[in-house]
Amino acid sequence: xxxxxxxxxxxxxxxxxxxxxxxxxxxxxxxxxxxxxxxxxxxxxxxxxxxxxxxxxxxxxxxxxxxxxxxxxxxxxxxxxxxxxxxxxxxxxxxxxxxxxxxxxxxxxxxxxxxxxxxxxxxxxxxxxxxxxxxxxxxxxxxxxxxxxxxxxxxxxxxxxxxxxxxxxxxxxxxxxxxxxxxxxxxxxxxxxxxxxxxxxxxxxxxxxxxxxxxxxxxxxxxxxxxxxxxxxxxxxxxxxxxxxxxxxxxxxxxxxxxxxxxxxxxxxxxxxxxxxxxxxxxxxxxxxxxxxxxxxxxxxxxxxxxxxxxxxxxxxxxxxxxxxxxxxxxxxxxxxxxxxxxxxxxxxxxxxxxxxxxxxxxxxxxxxxxxxxxxxxxxxxxxxxxxxxxxxxxxxxxxxxxxxxxxxxxxxxxxxxxxxxxxxxxxxxxxxxxxxxxxxxxxxxxxxxxxxxxxxxxxxxxxxxxxxxxxxxxxxxxxxxxxxxxxxxxxxxxxxxxxxxxxxxxxxxxxxxxxxxxxxxxxxxxxxxxxxxxxxxxxxxxxxxxxxxxxxxxxxxxxxxxxxxxxxxxxxxxxxxxxxxxxxxxxxxxxxxxxxxxxxxxxxxxxxxxxxxxxxxxxxxxxxxxxxxxxxxxxxxxxxxxxxxxxxxxxxxxxx
Length: 657
Description:
Helix content is 3%, strand content 61%. It is mainly beta. The chain has a 22-stranded antiparallel barrel. The two termini are 32 Å apart.
């Protein structure tokens, strides 16, 4: 389902912007529930690449923003149950989301995404499923190729004014490629309680333990010879990464009356990452071949929403404050052939972001409404070198970035089933600490010469509903100053630079249809034209971003009479993408591809018990293709191949109480 409007602030403030909404069925049914790439391909304008490399996370981008991220999510703001998954510097990790516990997801595109701050390319909001009523406990497990298997236990319920749900997931794989085994253990829990009719509290906690070998990319020759192999240096230095993430948050919402609401939240957590790179790092001014990060982060948000009437027309006002801070202890060590060696780098880094924002929505007539907002961000980076590292002298520094970004839009109701909208705004994306970590000239210290990106974003859209058909179309135009690009990448260490302006324009189209004979279909198409305008790459295409993506899904759900076949479904889906360039020079490209996937399942009920079985086959036609690219790899190892035909089979048992 696709809708217009953004809930920002304690009450829903409708905005003339586009949101794609995926419910629990779209996110989980017949899916492994391991990676966001399984389901987000059906959202136009959103690209998620499964790299078959759990050490590097998904490559995720919205309208080209974040397309060149070497790991994690950049340029896109992410939350889970209202708690940020994106740090104050704009860096986030999608692996924190425990997919089996999800109940829904919103993807916000267009100028109004800038109201969420430092990641104006777009917003992804994930929500844990509602606590079940009556209470229930479910166990889901599946097994597939390459020793892959996952088991999830989810339980929850409602009792009076208290409700909660929690899920524990264990995923393991030997990996399709050589040296790509991984284990991931996740917990996600949400507790809600209402001590009074006008107060609601929510406590959120999630945890992630992940250990993954890192196979890295391949050259074109290596890809053609054997796409499952790795470079010998990968094995020699035992490249790998471990992640430990803990985060908790508390949200309080108080309703003074029908027109006034206060919402406050606070969160905090820790993250530790240790990564072994494919070189020693004991040469010259190198910061080492082992990266060891200890991060401590926290933040708080408060916003107030008021509704009323002006000239006999309804309006809504929202205003708030947000503060976030991260303390990072970064060390680098020699990689002594897979064993941590001598200290090479020692830094204490901090970043904080203080923001103020306001927003308004006014129904000018029964058909026409106007919305607007303003947000000011001040982001401060600081780095202090340790005294015990050989390269500590002169490696400290600081940077201050700030921006005030307005947005405005109009929404017009043509009739009960058709709406058109237009919006315009500015945006702001700072470098992340990862992008600042290394200087292009190879000298020690952070890359404080890197400047933030500033956006000018315009969009026009339409949404229509015709009986069993829902359709949406949008056209956008975005100009970016100080485009941040990958300057070089070698063995997992990436440097960045500014490359002048980019101009991007495109369209997102989607269609949902309920068809005869118990069939349903979804189509989604996106076109993106993004070029550098001036600078060293004038006229070239932004790397990592395909110009076109097309998704088609067809599902059949017949009402079968057999008790053993209740809930039967079968889904055939196709994903087609055009080529992507591997660097800003456009020196090479990964070819486009098309892949076909199939899933089927059934369900049975026996009193309080519910049993479901499912089968999924990916890459049904056994195509050979490149799933993702490593941007600007200095050794030409750009390509990360996708596996051939593979299948999983699983079962879920649920007991209601």
